[in-house]
User: Which sequence fits this backbone?
C-alpha cells in the first residue's frame, strides 16, 4: 500500500495564539514552526497539525468545518489527558471504553473542532480491524 498514515491535518482559526496555547499547553503538542499565517505542531513522529488563519492559501486550500479528527495515543494516557482537557475545552466526553478494550476521549477545542484521542492502534490493532467493528 502506498499510503501509510496521515502526514498533516490543518485547522482554521481566527485566534492562532489561543489555539496554539490549547494544543501545546493542554494537549502537549510541540511547536515545529511558525510561518506568518500558520503554526505547525508535532503530532507524533510522522505527522503534524497545522493551525492556519483564514484567507487564501497556496494550492487552492480554503477553510471550512470538518466532522472530527483523532490523535493516536498510548494506552494509559487518556485519564491524564482528560484531566488536562476538562475545564479548558467546551465539552469533554470520556474516556469511553469501546468493545474490544480500546478507549477514546472526545472534546471540542476552543475553535469548535471536535477532537478525539484514541488508543486503538497502540493496542496492537490495525486499520483493517476497523472495517469489522
Assistant:
Amino acid at each position: 500500500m502506498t499510503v501509510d498514515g496521515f502526514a498533516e491535518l490543518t485547522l482554521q482559526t481566527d485566534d492562532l495564539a489561543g489555539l496554539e496555547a490549547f494544543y501545546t499547553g493542554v494537549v502537549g503538542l510541540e511547536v515545529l514552526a511558525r510561518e506568518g499565517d500558520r503554526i505547525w505542531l508535532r503530532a507524533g513522529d510522522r505527522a503534524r497539525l497545522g493551525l492556519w488563519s483564514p484567507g487564501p492559501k497556496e494550492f487552492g486550500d480554503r477553510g471550512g468545518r470538518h466532522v472530527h479528527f483523532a490523535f493516536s495515543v498510548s494506552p494509559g494516557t487518556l485519564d491524564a489527558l482528560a484531566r488536562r482537557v476538562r475545564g479548558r475545552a467546551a465539552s469533554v466526553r470520556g474516556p469511553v471504553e469501546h468493545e474490544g478494550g480500546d478507549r477514546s476521549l472526545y472534546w471540542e477545542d476552543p475553535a469548535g473542532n471536535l477532537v478525539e484521542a484514541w488508543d486503538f492502534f497502540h493496542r496492537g490493532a490495525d486499520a483493517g480491524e476497523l472495517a469489522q467493528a
User: Anything to note?
Assistant: The longest helix spans residues 16-26.
